[in-house]
Amino acid sequence: MRWLPYFLAAGVAVPWLAVHLLGVDVGNTTVAVMSGIAILGAAFLLSWACEVAEEDVPQALAVSVLALVAVLPEYAVDATFAYKAAHDPEAAGYAIANMTGGNRLMLGFGWTLVCVLNWAKFRRDRVVLPRDVGAEITILLLSTLYALVPVWRGSLTIFDTCVYVSLYFMYLIAAARGEEHESHPVGPAAALASQSTAVRRAGILLLLLFGAGVILLSAEPFAEALVHTGKEWGVDEFVLVQWVAPLASEAPEVVVATLMVLRAASSTGLRALISSSVNQWTLLVGTLAVVASLGAGHVATLPLDERQRDEMLLTAAQCLFGIAVIADLRLQLWQAGLLGGLFLIQPLLPNHHHEIALAYLGLFVSLVVFDKRSRNGIWESAKTFWILLSNQPRPIASQVDPESGLEG
User: Fold this and answer.
1) Which terminus of the chain has a lower count of CB atoms within 10 Å, N or C?
2) Into which CATH architecture does domain 4-389 fall?
3) How far apart are the C-alpha atoms of 372 and 384, rounded to whole Å?
4) pLDDT for position 179
5) Which pLDDT score is estimated for 400?
6) What gap in Å lies between CA 142 and CA 136, rounded to an integer?
7) What is the pLDDT of residues 362-402, one digit of tens each?
8) Sequential DSSP letters for 252-282
9) Gap between the Cα atoms of 210 and 195, Å rounded
10) How far is 80 from 237, CA to CA, in rounded Å?
11) What are the residue boundaries of the structural domains of the chain, listed by start?
12) Alpha-carbon span 130 to 144, nearest angstrom
């Protein structure tokens, strides 16, 4: 039974692999469903491999390589659309749709879920984060603030790539110099982690190769089929890509975070979701212009029309508000409820995303200006980030919930 999740996750990809490799025509809707399920299964395999691999590689390597692996499912779909953008202008919009949908789902639903489960399981009304998460908070703040530049300009360029990738590498350096966190694999990952070193490492390699292979074979058919399905069913393809595609790519991270909460590691679960947002806002967004250039055969930009600019503005504004909320290294239950509530009204008001974005920005500015804890938290996070980046010999202690003495 310990290995059943692995067989299930790999098994759900087999029907799609058979259909795809044999060239069987099953229709767009079926292709979207089968390839989407295959990506979901592969994403779980990659997630488990990443958890276990943290026991076998140096922290600096783990942070850099595993961050790349973690963002692979969503990146593969985004890259597919960005590559086609030069010859299909609509594809550029779909790349933005997938990226914004994934980010908003992670923050609006994922962060809220962790805090609500923490309260339901342990009756704790807050999740407390360690001090060195200030690196993630600072990079997330810088990257989302910079997102206002391409929104204003109306395109993602190679210059944006330079900025975002630089932020990503600064994050890697700071993360590698942060606290050493003992690995505690949960769920299916724990079964593989308990094996001998040789078996564990062979298992990790097999999971990475199989999961990555499935995603690479599935990303383009899934993306194309999703768009064609929307047209066939009369559903807005942009909305379909924005809300359906991320369900496959983000589900494993949310599930892992949930398992961590149930194991009394709510702080680790929330931090994992925050790190995922950092990867998306730096590495994923930053390389879209590069992929678009490869598709065009020359240096190109990824254009953003009015709708895409509004969606990107809304995503950045939501993230800025989330940063202001956790700047004091605590996510309280009522704050999580506010994040979740504001997230849920977005699909109900699809024609008012610009106004919702302005509301988020207003809340962000209000917190920074009038809430001393939020303002000081952002400043302290920046100082923590600089200490880690410059490798100053100053210890950074973890925080625990003052009410329980347990990890937040």
Assistant:
1) N
2) Up-down Bundle (1.20)
3) 18
4) 65
5) 43
6) 10
7) 999 999 999 999 999 999 999 999 998 888 765 444 444 44
8) HHHHHHHHHHHTT-HHHHHHHHHHHHHHIII
9) 20
10) 15
11) 4-389
12) 22
